Each structure stands twice: as structure tokens, then as C-alpha cells.
Amino acid sequence: MTDKRELLILGGGLVGMTLALAAARQGMSSHVVDRADPAELTAEGFDGRASAISTASWNLFTNIGIADALEPFGCPIASIAVTDGMKPGRLDFQPEPHEGSLGRMFANQQLRLALFEAAAKEPLISWHSRANVVSRTRGEHGVSAMLEDGTKLEASLMVAAEGRQSPTRDEAGIAIAKWDYSHRAMIASLTHEKPHGNVAWEIFYPAGPFALLPLLDDDQGRHRSALVWTVSEDDAAGVLALSDRAFTAEVAKRMHGVFGAIEKHGKVMSYPLGFHHTARITAQRLALVGDSAHGIHPIAGQGLNLGLRDVGTLVEVLAEGMRLGLDPGDAQLLTRYENWRGLDSFTVALATDGLTRLFGIPGKAPSIIRRMGMAAVQRTPALKRWFMDEARGVSGKMPELLKG
């Protein structure tokens, strides 16, 4: 007998697996297909990145039942300091005490562990790891994917959650606008003499943003932060070739002693930075989520959160449609998802691109203008509130799963 499910999710990363769990909490079954081995994805040192989980995304994790498993590993972000090269004119974002934190920092490894452990226990999720898709079919009455081992998976709706190089998106012929920033993000873990005070720093230099993101102290009580240092592609090889001592010296120079003496731990990882945004996020019995639909600069730490907003919206649209007796692949439901998510994701993508370009203009005059603008925002509570709400993901029309 054919095991036809509501969803066929191609890509079992952070966004794809969150979608499967969120759908299961609404009674929807899914096939989740991923090429990777979960043991490799959660291995120590596989991915040194950390992610800022916004308030809305944390609500989603709470509502799908993984927040308790994650809670001990998250470092709250109490405030965000934004500065143009550490010159006067700093901008601070700090919510009111009753509003809680601006978000939480988690190692990607820990996010994967929590998601994978929950998925392994969920009977509505059929998880196909270490599996290659050799063909995809989308028809009037359903969708299917043929795996390399001959297994055929069937569902009502196909969801592409494969990331920036999504073959499902490309095969569907969905147009995409994209460009390369000619930058690389250098990712490293730092320990430092002074506590970070749960402050996330975004220091803008003409060569690119330099972010220090708070992490929990390690088991030896050392203060820790995650570094995301954007460098020109032309300089990337040289930076990666630096000795630990030389790399630490370059980082310390850009930190201006804000955390005192620092040390680098583990290896430095690097990732190319680019922008892409699809012309649409749906097609016949197909929905795109996460980086399959939009890839943005990490300047504001919104990439994963944008994908989690896709998840919350898609699940709400499908659940409401199914309560009315509609098929998950119904064109009306996909149109609603398109209309709800299309503008928001495009607006965030353009904003991050604009910030990247604005702060990348060298020279004293542009720096003075930027700092005057930041000072104006600092003195305008309504503007600061708007920026904080955007950072926390609580602005605009929110799906129920992202509400507290």
C-alpha cells in the first residue's frame, strides 16, 4: 500500500525539519528527504556557526515542543549595540524589562540535535536521510519523488527546503534574482577576559560588518562570543592563512578592547556571501521555504528567522485549508501563502542589502552622515521600537505558531 502523505519535504535542515515538526503538531504527515547523514551534521566541528533565534522564532520552537530541550543551551541577547567603526554615535537597542530578550544565541549543532531528536520520535514524520532524489513529479492530483534506491515517495504538496542551490526550485523554472557580494564571512569562536553582558555587537567597517554575538560561558567559566567577520573575497585566502596569533591580533584590533584580552578557539570557517530572491515562492503543488526562496546577507542575523516565518505561515495556511476540506496542494492555499510571505521576505531582503551597501561606502563624509542618522534613531523612541520589533520578528501579520 502506498504511503502517501500530506507533505513531501525535500531538505531536512533547520528549516525543513522545523516544518515537518510544526506540520505534525497540526496533524499533517510528511516525508522528509535529505542527502546528509544526521550523525555528520551534528558532529563536533562540522558547523561552527551560531544562529540568533528571534522572539517569534523562539515562540515557534515553544509551540512545537522543542524549547525545553534547547533552553539550557541558549544565551539571551539583552541588547544590540550598533556602531560605525567604534566611532561616536553608537546606537543601542534594548527592550523594556517586561519584554524579555531580543532573542537567543544557539550553536547550529545544538539546534540540529534538538530538531533531529524530536523528529525521530514523531510518528507523522517519515525521515529519509542519506537519500538522493533522482526525479520529481508534480501533477494535478499529487506529487512524488523517486529516490536513488528505487523508493517512490508520494504526497499532496512538495516543499523545497534544500537551501540556496535548490534543485527543486531550478527544475520548476522559478526565476531568481541574485548577486555575489564578493565577501566571505569568517566564523570563529572567541573567549575573552571581560563578560559580554549579553550584548550583541554589530560593528560596521567599509570592508564589511564585524559582529560579536554572545554565547554562554564554557564549562571552565570562560566568557565566549561568536565572531562573524566579513572580509573581501580577495582578502579571504590571506585571512584564512593567518596563524592563530596573527588572526587574534587582527580581530582584537577591530574590537577596540571592548571585551579585553581575547583568544580564538577551534578552526576558522568561511562562507561566501550572496543575495538571491525568487520571483515567486509557489508553483503547481510546490512551495519554497527558507534559503530555497531567499538568501540574504547575515548583517542582521535574520536569514534563519526569515525561513522560520515561512514555516509558521505555510503550516497555518495548510492547517486552515485542511479544516475546510481542501487538499494541501490546493492552488488557493498556495496563493494565500505566496501573498502572505512574498512581500515580507522581499522587504527584509532589500533592507539587509541596503544596509550592507550603505555601510560599505568608505570615507569620512559617508561615515559622518551614517552616524548622524544613527544618532537620530537613538533619540527617536518610535523608530527604535520599530527596529526592535523587526529584529524580534513580532511586526506585521504573524502566524499563530510564532505568537507567544
UniProtKB/TrEMBL annotation:
Residue ranges that the Swiss-Prot or TrEMBL entry lists as coiled coil: none
Q: Which GO terms describe its biological process?
A: ubiquinone biosynthetic process
Q: Quick one: which pathway? A: Cofactor biosynthesis; ubiquinone biosynthesis
Q: What cofactor does this protein call for?
A: FAD
Q: Which PROSITE patterns match?
A: UBIH (PS01304)
Q: Where is the FAD-binding domain?
A: 6-339
Q: Which molecular-function annotation in GO is an example for this chain? A: FAD binding
Q: Which Pfam families match?
A: FAD_binding_3
List the InterPro entries hit by this protein, alphabetically: FAD-bd (IPR002938), FAD/NAD-bd_sf (IPR036188), Ubi_Hdrlase_CS (IPR018168), UbiH/COQ6 (IPR010971), UbiH/COQ6_monooxygenase (IPR051205)
Q: Which residues form the signal peptide?
A: none
Keywords noted in UniProt:
FAD, Flavoprotein, Monooxygenase, Oxidoreductase, Ubiquinone
Highest taxon, organism lineage: Bacteria
Q: What's this protein's family per the entry?
A: Belongs to the UbiH/COQ6 family.
Q: What is this protein called?
A: Ubiquinone biosynthesis protein UbiH
Tell me the organism.
Alteraurantiacibacter aestuarii
